[in-house]
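FAQ: What does the model actually see?

It sees only this:
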Amino acid sequence: MDLVNRKYNLIQELTKVKDERVIENIEKILCPDITTSQKEELDNRIKSFEKNPENLSDWDSFKETW
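And it is asked to produce this:
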């Protein structure tokens, strides 16, 4: 089944859901809440990466540092 059909099937199943907790959990996955400061930090990190993409640490180097 291709992605478009899978999405369509999910939408149809969602219309049948009666438990509000299920919808809330799906919303948390699709639309996670982040604070303003978290968003600002993420934006700053993206900008930093865009300015200097070669300035990265691999996971092993990071673990050694911390």
